Amino acid sequence: MNTSMSTFFPWPAKYAALFCGGVLLSSMAVHADESRIRNRTISYVMTDLFWSVYQTEDAKQECPRGFNDGPREQFEKLFPYHEGLSVQETQLAQEIETWHPTTESDGFEFYEVEGELAWGLNLDGEVSSNDFTHPDGTPGIDNEVYRAVGCVIGFRGPDGVEFIFQDKAILDEEYNRMMIELTEVDSLDNDDTVVVNMYRGMDRLLTNATGQEVMAGGTQRIDYRWGESLIRQFNARIVDGVLITEPMPEMVMPWQNLSVPSIHIFKDARFQLDLTSEGASGILAGYADVDSWYYQLIRNDSTHHLSNGQISGISLYKALRRLADAHPDPETGENTAISTSLDVKMAQVYIVHPDSKAGE
Amino acid sequence: MNVLNRLSIVSMLGLLPALASAADEGLYTEAYRDVPMPAGFRVEATPEGPVFANSNGMTLYEWPQHKLRNGYSGESPSNPACYDEVLTVTAGLMSPYPPGIKLPELDKRKSCADLWHPVVAAADAEEVGEWTIVERRDGSLQWAYEEQPLYTSIKDSQPGDVMGGTRRSFGGDSPAKRVPIGPPSLHPPGFSIRSTFNGRMLATDRSASVYSFDGDTATSTACEGACLTNWEPIVAPSLAREQGEWSLIERSPGVRQWVFRGRPLYTYALDSGTWSQTGTDIPGWNNVYTQLAEPYPASFKSQPTMVGNALATAEGKSIYVYNCGEDSQDQLGCDHPDDTQVYRLAMCGAGDPERCQEHWPYVIAGADEESTGRIWRIVWIDPMTGRFAEPNQEGALRVWAYRDRPVYTFGGDTRPGDLHGGGTGEWRGQRNGLKAIMLRDDFFRGHL
User: Fold this and answer.
1) Phi-psi map region of B386: left, alpha, beta (phi>0 left; psi -120 to 50 alpha)
2) ipTM (interface predicted TM)
3) Residue B162 forms beta bridges with which residues?
């Protein structure tokens, strides 16, 4: 995790260093970082977006009791002699539990993350016993989605089914082509006031010849027609090269991994991104609406796909509801949102406004 | 060539006056190439284009082999697999559920042949062209076309009905569906036609959408100079000949462009996907259909969503249709009010019909509304059983149905343009679930 930007956008400062030295090198690097700013504006398009899952090599630290069962394993335990049973008693009973979930126990022990470390941010400004600690030592990290999915194989990289499908879809599809546009930018190093616009793009990503590595410098038109409801504007600042946005009351993130248009709703959402002229990387954190989170998952992934990642929607829903930690329902008092963090990577892009030309 | 009588087609399809007057295309139906047929068969114009029919006008279907997750269903060439044996257990063709589970309502369950009647060939019948005769297990003879055994559907009751199946493309995880068959469409090489919700859409043989421009005529084109930057004329080969509705316009010496029904044809350089509708955003430019679909009810509308334009009620609530196919070897449908309702009730309301009405309410027809044709009909439904009811039967609802299947809105859609119900159910809404009806889908290539 936390792969450095130079891995994904390898060429800029490296090659400058081949030709320059000392003070000259320093001044040229700064110049390169600012070179893609046009009219005090620089924009980025998302190329990676997935739940922040802190993983150790053998998972012993975070999942000492192992990984959770999925639908296939649960079915075998529930119905070892299914031949004598009906579709209603077996398959449809499980589908009903999936599509009409409850918080009642399903009889399976659910393995939550037990480690102390997690990626994410301190969303509530408090440090409590339920919080994680960031690997850099920062306490108070709120990331209960990680606690729920961290011991579910399908959410773990690099080969979990959710990880794979999302990784592919964000490159291949346009429904989820989200971008941020930083305006009123004076410097990518430090700037007290930056205004950020969030749009959906309409175009394919600019890639190298492999089609897999996204390049900086592409262009994107703004989807004002279908994507108007996704447009947001918020304030931010840049501190030592890190973009820190103010929390947005509500951000809608289009999400697709298997041909079903769905959304996530993040409350109090905020970016924390390392900026360069070529790209941005870091975190999107906030509180995810639990129901939207769950139905996004099961609408995109059939029980078959969930099985491939050993993801029991039935068990996971109960965990999400149990671990939800914000935005209580005014009537029931039950929390409706759950803290989360997503790893984000973006490539610099020129956003084409209807009355502008690329790069202006 | 056999171009069907336009006026009779308008009458048959029940086209709304608004559509018929709004677009010349509403008057057309798809032309087809004459192929030799055995006696007793004919071609019927249907919303799915021209199809073969028996002497009573009932549409003929094939059941092509379809690869599923754990095996195959459907029929391999010349091998009938639809018989009068009532299957009792699941086939386990779709993971993760294993085979051998008892199918629902076994006491009422029909066999494949009960629902799909084999098209019987007489003992002295003779094969003609692509029409061949295959032998069934009991020694009886069955007609096949291009080696696929043929059937009629008990869901069809009138000539031109295609209630048993559609030609719309379906995903690999959909059931092995029955598909209406017909003669080849009459178009030059280099083109293809696909059934969509909006009609039979024309594209190149590489699935690039074909467009026409309002400013063009059969003998003149207004798209010159800069217009050609984004609009590429579809050029005909040097040996191409005019035929039927297809003619040619010489744009410049030796360069001839295809013209269909009096409009020169183009592709759009900015289309980023196949079967696209994005070119129609440019005023005056239109997708081309060989025939339009029957208009949807006048009380419905096209509602912008985050995905494209969905069919919606007057209040802007997206409209969904239920899809269902069993995990049995015969892949019988379960999406029609005459089919078992066990699957649908499980998905829409955990088996509780009242919860179903809360989560997935039927689209109630207005008191002054009438059926618009065979595709969009008003039917009476008993909401407690999900089955057809008698008119004004106590508790029954008068609802809109698409191809005889009731349509629904989703309780989770609270604002116009919400589309939160799409993909609900097993296999992303393909096998026991609901999908939105999209009029324009810029993102999902018509899979919704």
Assistant:
1) left
2) 0.91
3) none
